[in-house]
Structure formats: C-alpha cells, structure tokens
Amino acid sequence: MATVPLPATPQADWPSSGRSWFAVAVLTLGYVFSFIDRTILSLMVDPIKADLGLSDTEIALLQGLAFGLFFTVMALPIGWLVDRVSRKRVIGAGVTVWCLATAACGLASSFWHLFFARMAVGAGEACLSPSAISMIGDNFPPEKRAFPISVYSTASSVGAGLALMVGGTVIGLIDSSPEVTLPFIGAVAPWQATFIIVGLAGLVVVLLLMLVTEPVRREIPIKGEVGGGMIAHVRRHPAFHMRHLGGMALYCVLIYGVLSWMPAYFMRSFGWGAAEVGLRYGFVVLVFGGFGLSAAGWLASHLALRGVQAAALKVTGWSILLVTPFMIAACLAPSGWIALAILAPGMVLFTASGGIAVAALCEAAPGTLRGQVAALYFFTLGVVGLSIGPVSVALITEYVFDDPDALGAAIAVAAGIFGPLAGLLVLSAIKPFNRAALALAASTTTKTQGTVQ
C-alpha cells in the first residue's frame, strides 16, 4: 500500500505471485494453529478444574499470565533476531516449541505442569508474527501489501473460531465418552486428547516451511541517510507511532475484553451451555471475523492503488468507530439469537483492523527494521490488552453494576468508552504517517539485501 510515491522497482525483481502467495498460505496456516493452541483452553475450563483440582484463580493465571507474559516479553528480542537471521528458521523453531508445548498440556498432572507448558506455548508463538509480517513485506510491493497481510491475519478469527467450536464439541462429548485411548499414550480424558491432537497436528507447518523461499530484504536505508535502530526510528516519528500504537492498544483492551467475556455473557444472560456457545458464537467468529479481516485488506489495497493516501489507517480508524454501536446493541439484546444476528455484521468490523493496522507500520519502516517494528506493535498490544482488557469488564460488572448478570451491560460500557477513543486516536495518526512514509521514500533505496534461501 503506497500512500506516497515510492521509488519504482521493476516487477521482475519481486518474487512470482505463486511463490509469494504460497508463503502467505503457509504462514496463515501456522497462525491458525497458533490461535487454536492458545485459546482451546478457554472452553475446557470445567473438566480441567475437575480433573486437576484447580481454582478459578489458577485457571485465570494459566490463560493470562502464563501465556501472555512470555508471549509479549519474548516479542522484542525475537523481533531483533528476525531482522538479522533467516525468518523461516525462526518460525520453524517457534512452531516446533509451541506445538510440542501444547501437546505437553495434555500430559499435565498438576497446575505447575500446565503453567510451564503454557509459558512455552507463549514463547514459541512469539516467533511467528514478527517473522511473518517481515516476510510478507518483502514478498509484495508496497501498494499490494495490505491485502496479503490481512489474509494472514484472518487466521486469528479462523483459529479462535475453530478453538471455540472444537472446545464446545469436546465438552458436549465428555458425558458420553469419559476417556479417549491414544496410541503410545493410552487412556486420557477428552480435554487431554484435544491438547495432544491439536498440538501434534500443528507440526505439519514445519514441513511446509521447507517449501517456502526466504525473500530478500527490500527498501534498505541508504548509508548515512537513516541511522540507528528501531528506537531511533520511532523517535524520528513520535507523533505517528504514539498515536497509532496508543489507539490500537486502547482498541486491544476492548478486543481482549470481548474475547474473554462474550462466551460467559451468552451463558449468564441466555442460559446457553458451553457447547452451544462454542458452536454458535465460534461459527460467527470464524466466518464473519475472517471475512472482515480479508475484506478490509482488499479495501485498503484497492484504495491505495487508486491513489488514496494512508488507506490502511483510514479503514482501520473508521472500522473501529463503526463497530461500537454494533457491540453495544449485541450486548443489550433481548435474546441470544438476536445478539448473534447483530454480532455477525459487527464481527466484520470488529476484526477489520487486525491486518491493516500493522501493515501501516510496515509502510513507514525500512526493510531492515520491519521485524522489530512489528514486534513492538504486538508487544504493546499484548501488554496493554492482556493486562487491562479482561479486568476492565470485570471491574465494571462488579463495581459499577454490582451484578454478575449485568455482564452484557459491562461489555457495552467498555465498547462505548474504548471504541471511540481508539478510533479517533488512530485517525489522528494519518498526517504524521504521511510524513513518515515520505521520509522513508526519500531515505531508502529499492535495492535488496541478502540472498534467496
């Protein structure tokens, strides 16, 4: 996506369309497995608690602290590594670690076994997105990047939706099938079998990565024109980065609040069981959320090709503003089915920013810093979203409404606060972004760095 003129690069210098989109497909598949592995625990809480004798607090630590802390902390050093070594090797190592760690969750016999396994899942998954965003940025010209990055980001909705649906199905089968027999392992509980099967299945991504070509690095700073590393880059354009990261961090508070509490909203307000919520709500997240991510990427690229400046930021900001009334209406609906009907189009807008927001960062960063800039983005959103998002809804429920059954109203209040603030802050970053993109065009060359592997 080009918001300002960039030096022309001969089309022959870019990888073929087939090779580039194959890389996107493999990276997207990896992202699907990562979201399944990180979220599958959320719908297996009760059987895990019963079998291991855990408390709600311990379950919360497994879902938040154990995974989130290492996922966010590892992002920055991995981003530094991504800009210096083979990115597909970094991804291969990360996939191997998180898949084996997910399978290890199914062999856990205590809280601490699960805690350390979830830590390893977070550390492994931290390798993927900074590497993937950097690779996609070097596979496609600037004006075409928003769409493939958004296609990659659809995996978050697809993976989260599949995790809800698979988890819901497992819960529904527990009564009729208390044990599952696996080769070489023996009899295990259904929740254990789910962890083991989905964890080992993800290793297919490591095999497919062998067929992916490591792209050369592009848009390299001209010697003497742009000095310093990622911190120096951010300091050169503080208005853009602070507004962009600040707006998306606020929006991530809403995202994590909705993801953490929406299933409980359906259960408490409408009496749906976990299996029903998993299948029904999971379907909406998978289909409409995935469509929103890819459609937003297509729209941003289409607008950019027509000469619209800062197209990705404009689509991001307006989608955040427009989703607010949908979220409020869905959380105040008189029935579960009406809430789902409102959430369906709302989820298209809710997920729209998932890929194009980070694509805008790539357009303002040289090729040698994209991994670190993407890592800073995911680090900031993870720290703010995971630490504030779930607890913000809980605090509103407990201290504003003083009623656990008012969960829907609490989510609606959070949407009314964080949605408009986030959208306006992102839109305010448009002018600083244009200045940053212009400076990048003036200080970089389209020559490539490295060799194809």
Description:
The chain has 453 residues and is mostly helical. 74% of the residues lie in helices and 2% in strands. The protein has a two-stranded antiparallel ribbon with strand order 1-2. A hairpin with a 3-residue loop joins β1 and β2 (186-188). The longest helix is centred in the middle third of the chain and has 33 residues, at 238-270. The chain is globular and about 65 Å long.
Q: What is the N-to-C succession of helices and strands?
A: HHHHHHHHEEHHEHHHHHHHHHE
Tally of alpha and pi helices: 19
- Measured as a percent range, the helix fraction is over 70%
Overall geometry comes to globular
Quick one: CATH superfamily? MFS general substrate transporter like domains
Spell out the blueprint of helices and strands.
Elements: H1 17-39, H2 45-52, H3 56-73, H4 75-82, H5 87-105, H6 111-125, H7 128-137, H8 146-173, E1 180-182, E2 186-188, H9 190-201, H10 204-209, E3 220-221, H11 230-236, H12 238-270, H13 274-305, H14 311-331, H15 336-350, H16 353-363, H17 370-401, H18 407-427, H19 430-443, E4 444-445
Antiparallel strand pairs: 1-2, 3-4
Helix pairs in contact: 1-5, 1-7, 1-8, 3-6, 3-17, 4-17, 5-6, 5-7, 5-9, 7-17, 8-13, 8-16, 12-17, 12-18, 12-19, 13-14, 13-15, 13-16, 14-15, 14-16, 14-18, 17-18
